[in-house]
């Protein structure tokens, strides 16, 4: 495919370039994957209003997320093991996001460390925190994010235990990959991926190995999660994290009105309506279906963002129309990265921007800040 035009094109290219275990890690949801699928398919149910003969000149997608300027309301979501989709993946994606003018969020479970990403960026990025049982380690992560001048902390609330993704278990997923005949075959059939990977030293969890007590080698995400993620994390801990961090705080993984109300009480700056891309509670509603009730309940108190299922600029626009102040993409940028490295991330962002811009114009709007439910059919 010489000229990828859609996120789906990037997905097929990534499948051809990335070893199966890592492609599957991105392209999977928990158990039956019903929530993963609903995240995407529920966007298609929302119809746009076609408006004509209105001035379409001087359009802009620029806005703010938590008060920070963005060239369009789309951030890169935190994703674990991004450096396994492509060598040095987090560093490449962070640079692409910086050049594009959108936030990059580094996962706790990244391959490149906070310091690696800071070393190749010139503007602040965001850091996503998983709270571990070992509070010294959590404090240390927060302090490292401060030292790297991260401009927001994204606290993930929906992964105190790990949802099961069958493909990861069947594939024996680990970072670095195991050297069994099956894994060697998966890598041998992806020579360009291997060549890039041979040239980097970053092949395991860069924020953890060498930083957490007694962790000099860590390969299995699931065993670390089972041992270390704090199942007792509660709303009371959010106050402690907010105090330790002292900067803008975003709570990620809210998919229920009652939880949104509790989150708004914490004094956080924003919440992300999210079900972790359908990777945690299979059977939970799609994020887009929960956006409006959550905005109605807490939108006057706290900025509401959304992720999950965005595969086009039209999807972003629909989320903005339903009250989101910003959105995040996970898989779309991972597919771009797997397919073409940094250029692929930029291409994914460009695809979304173009689709959003043209759709906004055809809905009769020129400024993303004026987009509201009036662009949706049956909502005017
Ligand atoms: C491969 C992969 C790894 C992820 N790892 C993390 C993570 O480390 N921390 C986190 O908060 N969310 C993680 N997520 C969830 C994303 O931040 C985001 O909620 C989700 O990808 C949004 O859905 P989308 O992929 O349909 O855009 C991950 C998602 C994927 C696809």
TrEMBL record:
**What residues does FMN bind to?**
78-80, 107, 128, 130, 156, 252, 274, 307-311, 330-331
Q: Which UniProt keywords apply?
A: Flavoprotein, FMN, Oxidoreductase
Which intervals hold domain FMN hydroxy acid dehydrogenase?
1-380
What GO molecular function annotations does the UniProt record carry, in alphabetical order?
FMN binding; L-lactate dehydrogenase (cytochrome) activity; L-lactate dehydrogenase (NAD+) activity
State which residue ranges cross the membrane: none
Q: Which PROSITE patterns match?
A: FMN_HYDROXY_ACID_DH_1, FMN_HYDROXY_ACID_DH_2
Instruction: Give the EC number.
Output: 1.1.2.3
Catalytic-site annotation from UniProt: 276 (proton acceptor)
> SUPFAM superfamilies from the entry?
FMN-linked oxidoreductases
Could you say which residues bind glyoxylate here?
25, 165, 276, 279
A Pfam family: FMN_dh
Q: Name one GO cellular component term.
A: plasma membrane
Q: Which CDD domains match?
A: alpha_hydroxyacid_oxid_FMN
Q: Which InterPro entries match?
A: Aldolase_TIM (IPR013785), Alpha-hydoxy_acid_DH_FMN (IPR012133), FMN-dep_DH (IPR000262), FMN_HAD (IPR037396), FMN_hydac_DH_AS (IPR008259)
Q: Which family does it belong to?
A: Belongs to the FMN-dependent alpha-hydroxy acid dehydrogenase family.
Please identify the protein, giving its name as recorded.
L-lactate dehydrogenase, FMN-linked
What organism does this protein naturally occur in? Rhizobium mesoamericanum STM3625
Q: Which gene is annotated as encoding this protein in its UniProt record?
A: lldD
